[in-house]
Every structure is written in C-alpha cells, then in structure tokens.
Structures
1.
Amino acid sequence: MSDPIVESSAAWPEIVKRHKDASTYPAGVAYMDGQYLPMSEAKISVLDWGFLHSDATYDTVHVWNGRFFRLDLHLDRFFSGLGKLRMDIGVDRREVQSILEKCVALSGHRSAYVEMICTRGTSPTFSRDPRNAVNRFIAFAVPFGSVANPEQMKRGLHVAISQTVRIPPASIDPTLKNYHWLDLVKGLFDAYDQNAETALVLDYKGNIAEGPGFNVFVVRHGKIKTPAENVLLGITRRSVFDICGELGLPLSAEPVSISDLKAADEIFITSTAGGIMPVTRVDGEVVGNADVGPITTRLTEIYWQKHEDPAWSSPISYPVASQESERA
Amino acid sequence: MSDPIVESSAAWPEIVKRHKDASTYPAGVAYMDGQYLPMSEAKISVLDWGFLHSDATYDTVHVWNGRFFRLDLHLDRFFSGLGKLRMDIGVDRREVQSILEKCVALSGHRSAYVEMICTRGTSPTFSRDPRNAVNRFIAFAVPFGSVANPEQMKRGLHVAISQTVRIPPASIDPTLKNYHWLDLVKGLFDAYDQNAETALVLDYKGNIAEGPGFNVFVVRHGKIKTPAENVLLGITRRSVFDICGELGLPLSAEPVSISDLKAADEIFITSTAGGIMPVTRVDGEVVGNADVGPITTRLTEIYWQKHEDPAWSSPISYPVASQESERA
C-alpha cells in the first residue's frame, strides 16, 4: 500500500499563479488604474459589485473618421449617472475626456466604440456596505460596431415584439444608463424564435418601450413619434429630435402602441451602435411598402453629415506614427 | 525647434502589457478555464456580456464546519437557471460539484461562501448575437460572510422600508438567480439615509418583497408568513419551510403588507449569507417587545443544528496538509 498522504496530495490540482487566457479580444486600448492596456488586460474581479450586483453606470460615445460625435452629451449623462449612484471616479470631466481620447489615439482606430464605465468596486475590508467600496473607473476604445450590418441597413431590419416588459422606472431609473439587460436578452431570444433579427419589448403599460440597445421611432402620414417613458434617453434619439427640429419635421415623444407600430409607414431605430437604422418587418409583416422609407433615409443622411460638423463633433489627435500607418 | 515627431510621441503614455493590480482580495480559490487560481486572478473581461448586459446566472452555497449545506438544492437552481438563459457550461452536475469541492478544499476554508457562475461570455467573432457567445463558467470559495454581524445577530437588525419596487416578474423571472440589483442598492442607500442597516423593497403591488440578498418573514400570534411573489425562492427560505414543517409551526407564503410588517411580533430575514437573522426595528420603530423573538431564536438554533445532519449537509475532503494546518 502506498502512503495515504502522498496518494491524497497527488489527487489535488495545483493552484496556477497566473490565469492562462486563451480568449480572443478585439484590437483596442483600455484604461484602468492609471494604466493604458491592451483589451485582453481590461478585466474586473468577479468580486466587483459592478459584476455581482450590476452596480455600475456607463456611457458609450463613438468616433467616426477620427472625430468624437457629441462627446459632451455622453459626458453629461455619464456624470449624471455617477451622481445618481453616489459614485466617485476620482477624475474630473476634463480628465475623462483626455483618457477617452488617449484610448482612441493609442488604439489607432479612426472609427471606434468608446466606453466609459464606473463600477461600485469592492470594499478593501470586504464589508458588504457599498459606501465602503472603492469605485472603479474604466474606459476603452474598440472598433466601431453596429446593431445592423450593411445588408440590414439596405433592406431594413426584421424585428419581433416580445411580451417581455422593460424594467419599469419604479425599479430602476431608465435615464441612468445601466447594464440591466436580462429583459432585453429575453426579448432577443423571443425574436430569434420568431426568425426575427432583433426585438422590441413593452413598457409597463403595454406600449412599445425600446429594444436591446436602441430607441424606436414610427412615421405615419409624415408625423414621427417615439416612446416618452420607460426608455433610455439615447443620444442618437436626441440627435433625431435635433435634426427634425432643423428640418421642421413633426416629432413628438408620446406612447407608441403595438397598433401604431403595425400601422406605421416607416419605422427606424436609433443607437450609438449604428446610428439611425431602418426596420422593414415587424412580426413577419412588411412595414409600409416594404422598402426603407424616405424620412428614414433623409434623417440617416443628415445624421452622418453631422459627423463632420464642428458643432456636433470634435477631432482626436492621433500619434504621428498612427496617422502615418493609417495613410499607408 | 525640436523634431515634431519626437515631441508628439513623448506626450503619449505607453501601453502596459500586463495590468498592475494593487487591489486586495480575500483569501480563496477560484476555478476558470480548467485552472484553479488565487482570487486575485478571478477576473472577467469588461467585454463579457455577463458584465456588459448582466447576462449571467449564479448560485451561492455555503460551507460550515467543513460541510456543504444543501448543495443539491443550489445545484438544482443553478442548472435550472442555465436552462432558462439557454446557457451551456460544458461540464455536468457531478463535475460542477467536484470543482466546487476542490475550490473549498484548496482554499482550506472550513466555513466558506462558494459561488458558481455562468456568464454569457463573448463571441469569438465579436458578433452582437448572444447565440454566438462562448459561455463562461466560474466558481470560487471565499471566507463565509453574513448580512448581519455578531452584534446585529444578538440585538437584531434595523431595517427601513424603501419605496423602490423590486424588478417585477414580467421583466425578469425572480426564480432565476441574477445580478440585477440596482433596485436593491437604491433601497440600501435609502435605508442608510434613514440610519437603518439594511432595506426592504416593495413588490409591484405595493407589498413587501425582499431585501438585498435576503427573504423576509413576519410572525404574528404564532403564525409565520413570507411573501410569495416577486421574490427569489431562497434556499434558506426553503429551509425555514422545511423546519417549520418538522416542528408543526404554521407558515404560509402570501402577501405581506407594510402594515403586516409593522404589526409583527417578530421579524426575521433569511439568506445563505448568514442564515436566519433577527430584525428588531423597522423604520425606527421597535418590533414586538424589541428583543429577538422566541420563534426566531428556535428556528435559528435548529437551522444551525441541521448543518451537522447528513440529510442536509455533505462533508468535504480536504488535502491532508490543510487539515493539519487547521488543527494546529
């Protein structure tokens, strides 16, 4: 018989000092703890309350052709969210702006999806009291992504209405940008089950609320409307209001019923991830004449033109080497 | 004038290859990607949808005196959650049990808080479609923690009722253990503002739902009740049902109004993090005669006795060295 102590220890796996990570990460640069890092290093502890309690707020701004789009509005909303959650990131607005710019510049991306995050963090004394936590600020820039791919942009997205109810304002302030998405994920799987490409979920009154990461607009007889309540007040949503104001197009924030959606001449969705995107099918039925509508097309064109407008966008300084490699 | 290229590059921070992490972590062992790791290495990417969309489920079992408490019930609930979220962790129930046991054994903790997690993960192609994600299984064992500290266990917790409404079942299935906690965090800050130690939040009908990580029970004229709807079906809650069944104490799951709470002779809360814990103040008013009540005390005693009962608990095999160091 062998020594039972040896037998026992032989059965135990070793504790590996460093996690060996075989995952793939997008090209990009993150900022954390004063350090600029490759995306593969941008990780948070599983003990961070930002994960364990989804106790976090964030914002995502995009960069197009080397320019931030409406960065000020995103910073406004991010700092407003920090206040609502009583979080302190230890850096001011100017510093956040500088960090975001450095993430983009160091990444070399001319078109980027740029996220700023604050998590509750953890308590150094392992207390359960969130007031004792050291809040954690993270930022990163990765390649620009869109809800709709080029084919969907051309022929319009196919959406399905899920009976899932978006988390109501009495539970979580929808103007606080947050990661509570399981209702939207449920909606998405419901939509896939109906062979649709994305979903719309309901508000707590049974009207249309929003979709996974986007607001929705309907056009009927030249009038445009979008849900007022139980939705994130998206910056792209706001841009549609601003553009409609400039063009003199009638737009109002008011309840959008399922019937309104099904009777629409045009439907479009809005998100920082893709801008203004057409919808041409709802629950398998065609919207209007089945093509991307003229108002959707006009708004989309102006939305992208605004990306060169200094009133709506601001240039990023890139390292010279990066500019040169981009030219090459 | 100096060379503009040199001047420009000098202004740019370097990209650090490895994140330097100055945070403190509790003693413990985690499992991820087939590796057993110190808690400092148990991290997820900020791009993991488990973080970005709180698209994750989990369960927490505790170990007391070297024995798992009701592990089977926690595994049942965890695997049920995986099914509801259409996630696949790639290991079966027996393997999960073995991994949890190894995390505890390697940590050496005789009393531990043991968490099993599945996150949606990320898509290797960076698609936005959750069906393309590689789900991520993580487990860890850290020292046992409690909602109530020893002083609070003796004199009872002071709670405040927040007007925040727990996320309703129409939005997120409350039987799916999830990290959507911002409503509970809001409740907690509301409670702190009233000099209370923890919170109770309401259900969507205006009755009492639950608190941050716990269920609540009220005792009035010897009868016990606990909310039936809009609450997590806690394993400790279930244990109270089982113990009341054995003792022949009347207990029912039915609406608990704010008046019920304020008229209670005794109140207690239940959580894996602490077991059965007394509440002796609600909104600054004393509960019953201000002391921990006899039913609460009796149930708490039996709850802890059950931790030695083979029908309710199962022993963990520790490495011999660890057993010896514990004895020393």
Note: The radius of gyration of chain A is 23 Å.
2.
Amino acid sequence: MPTAAQMSLNTATVKEQCNLQQAIEGCARHGIGGISPWRDKLQECGADEASKMIKDHGLEVTGLCRGGWFTAEGSLTNAVLDDNKQAVDEAVTIGANCLVMVVGGVLDGTTDLQSSHQMVEEGLAKTLEYARQFNLPIAIEPLHPMYAADRACVNSMRHALDICDRLGDGIGVALDVYHVWWDVELEAQIKRAGKDRLLAFHVCDWHKNTNDLLLDRGMMGDGVINIPLIRSWVEREGYDGLTEVEIFSAEKWWKEDADLVMRTMVERGLSAT
Amino acid sequence: MPTAAQMSLNTATVKEQCNLQQAIEGCARHGIGGISPWRDKLQECGADEASKMIKDHGLEVTGLCRGGWFTAEGSLTNAVLDDNKQAVDEAVTIGANCLVMVVGGVLDGTTDLQSSHQMVEEGLAKTLEYARQFNLPIAIEPLHPMYAADRACVNSMRHALDICDRLGDGIGVALDVYHVWWDVELEAQIKRAGKDRLLAFHVCDWHKNTNDLLLDRGMMGDGVINIPLIRSWVEREGYDGLTEVEIFSAEKWWKEDADLVMRTMVERGLSAT
C-alpha cells in the first residue's frame, strides 16, 4: 500500500480544478511524492517554468502525458513527428522519467487496423531514435480496447511488448490498471516486461456499472480492479517507482474540491492500492 | 460477401420491433437463411411452437442466445445450473447449431477476477457435460473487455480457446467481430480455433465515436471493423456457416421499421461484410 510519498498525481485527476502550479502546491501540501503533467498544463506556463516549480517542491516527475497520435493525420507527417520531438524535449526539460505514448486509433475514414498498427510502430521508432539522444525512455501505454478506434490501437501488454521487442532499448510500457485489468494474460505479460520495461504504474478503478467510455473512471477502491494484486505483480519484477493516480471523472472527482480529491487519493493509496 | 440466404438474423437486432413470429416472417420475406433467437423471445411463444414456426419457414437456427451468467449468484447455485440446462433443452428443441454463452462478470461485491474465471469454467464444464448428451455444441462468446466487470469475464479468443483446450470436445467459440476486432492476435487465434471450434460468426460494426457501452452498435459498413477481412480468416479455416447479424442499437436501428432493418442488413451483407 503506497504512502503519499510513494504516489504521484497525474494532472488529469484534477484537470478541471487546478493549473500546474496549483497541482504542484497541492502535492506538496498532501505529501504526495510525484507529479505527472499533461502537456496542456505544461504549456500554459512553459516547460522551463514548470521544471523550476517542480524542483522547488521536490517532486519526482513520473511521466509526461503524452506523445503519440501517430495516425491522426493519415500519414506520419512532419507535423506529427515534430510534435513528438517537442514532447520529448519537454519531457527532458522537466526531468520526466518517461514520455507516455497514446499511439493513435484507426486511420480516419478507414477500417485498416493493420496499416494503423504499422504507422504507429514507425512513429514510435522515429520518436525513440530522437529520444535516445537524451536517454529519455519512451513508454507505450496500452489503452483499453474500447479506445482502439479513436485513441490508441495498441490495446494489450502483449502487443506493446511485441513492439518493444522489435524496437530495442529505450522503450517500455506505462501500465495503467484501468486499461489492462481484465486481461487473463496480465500477470504473465508483466513478468515478460520485467523491471527495465515497466516504466510507469498508473491506477484508478473500473466502476462495475461504468456509464461513459471516457469520463467515468473511479477512485481506487470504488470499482472491480484488484489493484493491490496487480501492484504485487509489478513489484515482484522489481518495479520500485511511484504509483501514479490518473482519474478521468466528469461527474464526480472533477467536481470536487481538489484538496478533497488529493486527500482521498492518499487515503485510498493506503486502503485500496 | 454473404447473400441473404447466407445470413442469419439475431433477434436482438429487431428486439424492439418484433416478436419471434414477426422476426421469422421477416426473414422469410427477405430471403434471410437463418435466425438466432434470444431466450426471452423464445419463451414468449414456447420452444415447441418456436421450433414449428422456424421449420415451417425453412430457417436454419444459428444459435440460441444465451446461457451462462455463472457468476450471477455468487456461487454455482442449482438455480444457475438448472437455468443453463433449460437453455440446453431449448436449444435442442429448436435445433440450434449451438448454445451461445455469455459467461458472467466479476463476482458481485468483489474484485476477484481469478475466482470469477474459475467459477465460469466450472459452470461451463457442468453445462457441457449435460449438453454432450444431446450433441449440442456449447459456444463461448468472448465479450469485449468493456463488459468484463458486469457481463462476461472471458474477453479474448485466447482465453476462450484456453478454456476449450481444457474442457475437451463439444465446446468452441462464437466469434462476434464487435468484441474481438481490435485484438492483434485475432488472425492467429482464429487459426488456432480451427473449423471445429468456430461455431458461430456474428457481425455488426464499431462506430468510431461510440457513445454507449452497450447500445450503440453499428450496421456493417458504418464503423471501423474490416469485417470482410475477419470473415476471410474464418472461412480460411473452413467455416461455412451463416453470418449472423446482431446489433444492439437503441438510438438508430431499434427505432426503424423492421423491414428497413432487414433490407439494410441484406444490402450491407453484400457490400460490407
């Protein structure tokens, strides 16, 4: 059960309430050990200023969310690749442990999952080549299969690790329990990943009666995911990083006071994570 | 591209518009070769009467939907097992090619996916034992992972086939493209299944901007699934059964005239399936 100091706040969890400075100060107030900004929050204040604020408060940066979206323009345009290079630059500037990749969905107007997979892998390879110059790890986040069409067509640990096998050093996975908890292979694939490729560990919960594909994620303990069990599998491989809390919750947690959200996150870290 | 005669109507596709008799007569009117009733429709008129109506119209019965829900009562109660035996009896009475199993979600009030898996497998084994007496094939339908919590905790072809491997003869899978289209392993797992274990082939489509977890399924051609490709994989293994259309669509197809739905289904069979 992670203590506050062993947890990290993904800014999406309080995206409606906090700018980056407020999120950072909240983490400090609640003794939360790390932060993982989304790029929109970062760009509001700039990466340099963000880096300074984060350092001033002694927070670890468990990741930058997000690069990817390789299929967004129908081909690997310079715009797409440059945006990913910029994401690498930003991640390096703030000292992030990794750049989290949401790889993009099925190519618009097509049913061509295979070409989408291929474009994603080429985009990852090119971004990885750039990131290696800075020793910045690239973390593929396998997203839940319900996002295969519109957000990310890499939807299992197996697929993500197959890609890692092909691309070599410097790339691994960001494991978010929300996306992979249902997978009968999860324990085996975590073992396969091993410590070096487990770059981030994200938690939230799956409400039994989920009513929205994107914005009804639950606080740890409010759903059906056995988070402590999955955490034990990750830690058995030697993962000793922070536990990052990322909750998209339009109807509940985005409407609450940010301090209540962070207090609850810390409590549920101890009781349900 | 299946012709009308090579297609089957799952009654869920017109569940708001048609009782079983109306669905059967609709199939006859549109030259649709088969039907797959849900048990609620069957029970309205009784399995014997249903059987007679189906035979009178010369329809093949591609399946009965559905047995399963093994985790619904927290243990494998007699009520659950008896209901599955009754489903077997009904399937035999109407001459169904298989009994389709929606196996049940995570045990209520728990986060125990592993025990849920175990209970499902025991329930399948017991139902299979009964069904073998009648040579009725049991078809596990791997459901989309977004239903793991509340409907079915078998969510991939791999998991379903692992169970089939353990349980032996008389059990296979009902492959619905909606549930498995995203899986990078799909082609390989269809190959692994082989003709003998491909017991049913269900189609509909995944809307790119799906807005509901259950009731926003699309007509073939209106989404991102490459149905002809998946069909080619199934047929390469020797599958020569009908292509069954099962669409849950609260906002669109359940509000249309049933003849329009069936006409469209036949057209899209030829153009997008």
Note: The interface with chain A takes residues 105-106, 110-113, 117, 144-146, 148-150, 153-156, 158-159, 162, 181-185, 206-211, 213, 223-227, 229 of chain B (CB under 8 Å).
